[in-house]
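Structure catalogue
Derive tokens from sequence
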Amino acid sequence: MKSLSLYITAVFVFLSLSGCKKDKLAFQDEDMKAGTFMELALCVNGMEPDTRMTETEETAIGELTVLVFEKDAQRQYVFAYIPETVGWTDGMLRLRMRNEEAEIRVAILANLDLKQTDGEVYQDDVKVVGIGEDIRTAFDDIIFGCDEQVLKDGWKNNTIPMWWLMEDSISMEPGNELFYGSIWLLRAISKVNLLNIAEEFELCEAYVFNCMKQGKAVPFLQNVFTYYLDGKDGPVADRPSLPASVEKHGLVRIDAAASITADGQQIADAIYIPEAAAPTKTDKDGNMYPCHPDATCLVIGGKYDGSDRITYYRIDITEGNTASTMTSMDYSDIVRNTRYDITITEVRSEGAGRPEEALGNRTDIGGIIEAWQKGPDAGMVVE
């Protein structure tokens, strides 16, 4: 039996209002002041990068698509138009809205390479949002890819997909100039950090297994709630929202493992994965899975007790308190914009000879997951 002890902490990344206070844009061109306008301060709640992917890269916005939904005669919000962007400076976005009376909700999608044709939204030449689509289903066809190279390099060369939706509607009047304030974009992926503090173990390699090849850019609205802090609001996902395709990668080695040093036994800000649903704990006959074949998990490689030989261990992301065996573990959903910190505290034997063999080995793992409570009065830490 391969044995190591872990602390696994799931950190739900909520709002950080400090550092995102923006002033209104100052426009000198009088023509730009004519009409109906809205200004928003774009913020991205942090996942505390410190080594590989910088904070700027984790919050980078390469391109934006803004959608306006108007209330129709049936009192439903339907896609109406794409406003003109007339200013985007230092996180401040200024939009020219239709010069009309309307009750609206605004959505923003970032880093998805969406195109606009005849006022509608296309992705890879396929229409994904058409005029008149209901806000509850308008985003269902927008996905993003996560190929093997993206996994290997930890999204280093890719901007992270993000989304925001105005929860409560606002009324626009002709000639209005509305400063909406700060909004918080929600990333579509999660992050896993690894730290080894076991004296008898040297961390050398890391792999991801069963990672989704695609993700939904926008979560199902029923899987998101709004967290309020100091009068500001932002979306928080509490369940995964999965695309129709559930195709997964096999074992993918993380390139950042090559930079692990003897005195820096960690892989931080390098493992970014789409959401995944926790698999069932039992098979069709009611038998417990010792190592679920469908679970998204990690495999780590390292040297035990001074050996020159690298052996391998499976690590599952689980819920609940310390578990003595794999069969007593509750597999966890992997939820967008959440950071999972895994600390290896003890290794008591050599692992499997190859990464593939570790996938089917029962590893005696002790772990703790501290899922932050949702809400300002539930003892939640706000970054």
